[in-house]
C-alpha cells in the first residue's frame, strides 16, 4: 500500500469517527478516482436516518451506479474503515467499482464487539417452484 493510499484509508477512519460522534455506528468510506482524487465520501447514518441500509459503502455504491459510467466506476477504489458486510459487498459488485481497500476485517470487528452482538443469518429454505419462478427470469439476461 502506498503512502497516498494510507492517507485515503486514514480519511475513511476519520469519517468513521465522525459517524460515531454524530450518534451512528462508527463506519466511514470514500470513493477515489484512479488518480486518488476523492469523488465522494459517506458516513454510516443508520441510526439517525432510522434506515438499517444506511451504510457508507452502500451509499457510495448507489452513488456510483447513478453518477459514474461503467468505465469510470471500474477505475475507482473504495477506501473504507471496515470490510464491507454482505449487503454492501453485493452492492459494490453490482455497481462495478474497481476495488475495495479496508482497515478492519470483519473478524477483527467481531473481536471488538461484546459477545452475542454479531449478526447471524436467518433460517431459510429453497430453492422451490423452479418451473414457475423461471418464467419471469428466462431470457432476461441475454
Automatic annotation (TrEMBL):
This is Nucleoside deaminase. Residues 3-120 form the CMP/dCMP-type deaminase domain. GO terms for molecular function: catalytic activity. It comes from Nonomuraea diastatica. Gene3D superfamilies: Cytidine Deaminase, domain 2 (3.40.140.10). InterPro entries: CMP_dCMP_dom, Cytidine_deaminase-like. Pfam families: dCMP_cyt_deam_1 (PF00383). It comes from the Bacteria.
Amino acid at each position: 500500500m502506498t503512502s497516498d493510499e494510507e492517507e485515503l484509508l486514514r480519511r475513511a477512519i476519520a469519517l468513521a469517527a465522525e459517524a460515531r460522534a454524530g450518534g451512528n455506528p462508527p463506519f466511514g468510506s470514500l470513493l477515489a478516482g484512479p488518480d486518488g482524487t476523492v469523488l465522494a465520501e459517506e458516513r454510516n447514518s443508520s441510526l439517525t436516518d432510522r434506515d438499517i441500509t444506511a451504510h457508507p459503502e452502500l451509499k457510495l455504491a448507489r452513488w456510483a451506479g447513478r453518477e459514474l459510467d461503467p468505465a469510470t466506476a471500474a477505475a475507482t477504489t473504495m477506501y473504507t474503515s471496515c470490510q464491507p458486510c454482505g449487503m454492501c459487498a453485493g452492492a459494490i459488485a453490482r455497481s462495478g467499482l474497481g476495488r475495495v481497500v479496508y482497515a478492519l476485517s470483519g473478524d477483527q470487528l467481531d473481536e471488538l464487539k461484546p459477545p452475542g452482538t454479531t449478526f447471524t443469518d436467518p433460517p431459510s429454505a429453497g430453492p422451490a417452484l423452479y418451473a414457475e419462478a423461471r418464467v419471469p427470469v428466462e431470457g432476461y439476461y441475454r
